[in-house]
Amino acid sequence: MNIEIIHTPNPDARISVYDSGLGGLSILRELEQELPGERLYYFADNAHLPYGPRPLDEVRRFAIAIADQLLRLPSKAVVVACNTASAAALKPLRQTFPDIPFIGMEPAVKPAARDSRSGKVGVLATQATFQGELFESVMERFAHDVEVVRMPCPGLAEFIEMHPPDHPAMEPMVAKYVTPLVERGVDTLVLACTHYPLIKDVIAQVAGDGVAIVDPSPAIARRTRQVLEEGGLLASGGAGETTINVSGEAERFSRSASVHLGREVRAVSAPFLWVPVDGPAL
Questions:
Q1: Residue of 35, 156, 193, 203 with catalytic role
Q2: What average pLDDT values come out for the chain (282 residues) when binned by 10 residues?
Q3: How many C-beta atoms surround the C-beta of residue 230 within 10 A?
Q4: Is 193 an active-site residue?
């Protein structure tokens, strides 16, 4: 039985951005540019990082419990800035909280298929993203005329979480997944994990000049603006601000986030926003 929880969105409330760790910062920085007058709240569930190897039902439980807390801030919209969480929970989130807009991550196969010259598209993602029905839906709708080569990247998101883009082992780590795709003849790479745009320059360098990189982050920011406009939920004015909380350790996250956002970040631990594996399901 589905449970509906009613929250009434308010234009002056926050836009919440949720990910398992640093990856959603690739979305956050685009939202800050697209919606400079909005109050943004970023929550990283790094106590449960990584999401990629976890069962989808477990990720779904995390997502619904965290969304319930985010909406109590209150939040007028939630950007699920995590491909794994979107694959596991986007549909249940919209069913559970029907009055709140949820903007999720959909692998950008559509523009990749449209722009590919060779007819071969590579997709870099976690294994969980490939297992979700969301990815299969994207394939059914947009991949009729191209060959899509799926490349699960176990360990890559975790490596990005722990190391800066210029770490000497980053390029070899990326090459392990990207080089086989280039050898298969793909001319377009879809970054289907929000961690991957944080090292987009490394991926592009490994892939070479003949391979286009599809980063969905700007499109997600534009889509968020569109959803808010359609719902009459854009902020009425004032200066924007960004608050960052994490469910686990904050110091390392703050240092890494500062590197990726290009400014000093001071994340605060907010463990009340996460629910243990055996916690209540909504």
A1: 193
A2: 67 95 97 96 94 92 93 95 96 96 96 96 95 92 95 96 96 98 98 97 97 97 97 87 94 96 94 52 34
A3: 10
A4: yes
